[in-house]
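Subgroup meeting minutes
Present: P.N., E.W., G.H.
Scribe: E.W.

1. P.N. recapped why we're keeping a running log of single-chain structure predictions: easier to compare across weeks, and new members can see raw inputs and outputs side by side.
2. G.H. added today's entry (384 aa).
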Amino acid sequence: MPGVTGPSEYSQEPPRHRSLKINAKEPFNAEPPRSALVASYITPVDMFYKRNHGPIPIVDDIEKYCVSINGLVEHPKELSMADIRKLPKYTVTATLQCAGNRRTAMSKTRTVKGVGWDVAALGNATWGGAKLSDVLELVGIPKHTEITSSGGKHVEFISVDMCKEEKGGPYKASIPLSQATNPAADVLLAYEMNGEILNRDHGYPLRGIVPGVIGARSVKWLDSVSVVVEQCQGFFMQLDYKMFPPSVNWDNIIWSTRRACMDFPVQCAICSLEDVSVVKDRKVTISGYAVSGGGRGIERVDISVDGGKTWMEAFRYQKSGVPYVAEDVDSDKWAWVLFKAEVDSASNVQPENVEGIWNLRGILNTSWHRVQIQSSPQVAHSNL
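Output recorded in log:
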């Protein structure tokens, strides 16, 4: 791609915040302290998790950069950043979450493969850019199209990023054409994050944002967007990020028997406490995040201090001090909900434990998140 190169080594990596917990250095994968997530509704860029599969691409000449819109389209185009910016700009507040979020907890039951994420492999940001539905109209595909006259059913994002899983080829993923051409799906070709130009870690100069879907489909450092007949045949669509039952292991796995993960299921975690926390007072304020894929709202967040025998409802909010209402016109449907509750340490729901959802890749761990509170001087254990 003119203007942007995908290097094969790590000597030119960008600087990162020193408080990030590094889970892998090359490629760089890191998450913020869990407490940083509940410090603000919008996650600061430097506190947003970093998920990479290879060295970070380098922009040599932004004036030469362009993204190719091609495949089964009537009028293929090469769009520069100036062309993209001429289209109507939309801002979408959306939570991106790695499918491997909370993988370390799943490994405590049985070891799984993958980056060892705690509970902070996600973040909530305001993304700015052009809607993909508008871009596709430029090449002759109307809004709300499910299949083109030449048989195109999917839109494939191909990156400048080169990774070992693709045998040195580019990272890629796809979404259905019906989603890509639906303005209400809010799929973006984004060039801004939290009101600023994307930084290198997060896809500069242009990336896809697919709200409500696992982060693996929001491809960074775009090289091309192609309309194709079949779902992307790349590694991360066909040989990874699929949900299998606990009975499947690396000896009997058949990847083709499962669909690629798209919408992420309901997720909730406590961020104000570590897995084992010592508290001095009997009253403890619990806070964290709850989020559901596909634009579905969060109806309720419940907290238990007695191992699930009794529950209390937490206060949910997106705007500080303003109660959140699921599916309200003023709610950010693609974004997380923060929750808070004060506890005494004495239909689409999360499973109680990890055993029933354990899978060999350690993805989509949505079981109850538990932390232990130790009261002083008396010691009591509570599952929250």
